[in-house]
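Hello,

Our lab assistant flagged a job as stuck in the queue for most of the afternoon. It eventually completed. Since we weren't sure the result was trustworthy after the delay, we are filing this so someone can double-check. Below is the sequence as submitted and the structure that was eventually returned. Let us know if re-running is recommended.
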Amino acid sequence: MSGKAASITSARGIARNGVYVAVSQLLLVPITLAVTALMLRRLGLRTFGGWALMDVLLGYAGLVEFGIRVPLVKYVSQFNALGDHAMMSRCASTALAYYTAFGALVTLGLIAASPWVTSRFLRISMSHNALIAAYTLAVLTFFLNLVAGVFSGVLVGVQRFDVDSELLMLRRAMDAVGTIAVLLLGAGLLGIATVELIDMVIALALNAALARRLVPVVVYRRSLVSPAMFKQMFSFSARVQLARVSLQLNEQYAKLAFGWLLGIGSVGLLQLAEGVCSRAPLIPQALASTVTPAASDLGALDLHLRTRKLLLRSLRYTTLFSMPLIAGSICFAHPFVRLWVGAGYGPAANAIMALSLGYGLWILSMPAANVLAGLGRPGYEMYAAIVRLVLNLVLTTLLTVRFGFYGGVAGLALALAGSSALLIGICHRALALPLRRSLGECVLSPGIGAALAGTLGWMGAALLDPYGWAGLLAASALFGFAYLGYVVLFVAEDDDVAIVRQLMPARLAPVGRRLR
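-- returned structure --
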């Protein structure tokens, strides 16, 4: 052991990390929506759906990592709390060797299968050689992303979410600028794949350089690769991975089912809906992700009471951020989609409204999943994942066959909601924390505020509909200020105000002192 055991977790630190990741995700939302709209117009619905299917296939290939990044974050945080820098280096070196070796094998296999994949799944109107080239570039990007995940995991493990968030924003900004440029130049899917590969090379170099500079106690050497450490990490990750497999199926299986049963155009409609709904959880998901290293840090020192408080605080802030996102997705779905991509996409707007409910419960389960992972108890999430897997395969398939597009959307939403509710209950039982207490303290009041503000926003959107984007933005501002006012008057507590004061820049200190 090369250091002194001590916890680096604090309420201010968790809040600071949450602010970094929340701001980064918030800034990315308008960029992503603008790029998606341009892609749809330039590529067409069929090619856009083919791009979505390519993303699905590479998402399944990504399961080869077996969730190693989760135990990497946990053990780096745990050994950092214990002051054991040698074990931190052993974890990082083992993970890097694994990602490089197994990722290279999978990448070669995917490239070898490119003729079959492009002819059987990606049947879109472009040159076959160009399609194979785009697919190959996307596979190479997938491999580099695996390797970059090791350095990102080390930064997150020592709770440097600020750096990790800045790197993410930089990469997404480069992707957006490059994608817009190649679409305007008419380079199509091949141009997009080229831009993403170049951006990933830059992101990998930056991740590696900053991880080495900011966490110098971690060294990466082949001599530190440990089969015993790999076995320990793999044992942990195997339970995590089942949950990830289920989530991948829940997100992607519906697209495959729609492609087979309803045609590739329906995949594009579902991609539009999920493109919006999957953006809504990004901020609360990023907030909840800060809990994993914090829970590992507290668990290593047996601070059980603080762990329960960590769960409550995380659920509270996740709910505060997520409720307006869910309500806003439901209230503004139709005017937003009409202004975003044009008329004729009503089914996508209806799908957004339905999926928002399922994603809402999933968001509320994120703190539970991250706390359990940080404590080294991912088996509970695995149980919920099995339920999600079964519900998804059965409900999505049967309801798509019986009711078509909307049936598949309902099956997707029900699978998410049912498994998420189960995980929330399991986590509270495991931590001996009454579920009623959490719902009453953390969920009820923000939910009421979001419902009231959403009603007001919906009425405003209906009245201001003739004014286009200006009307929608005005209605959204009305909704946002109504919710913010409700939170300040009825939800905010003294601890929240104290944290805001601590995080507020010095030049705004007079404003902080006037807060109650």
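-- support follow-up --
The delay was a queue issue, not a problem with the job. The result is valid. Residues 11-433 form one domain. The first helix runs from residue 11 to 43.
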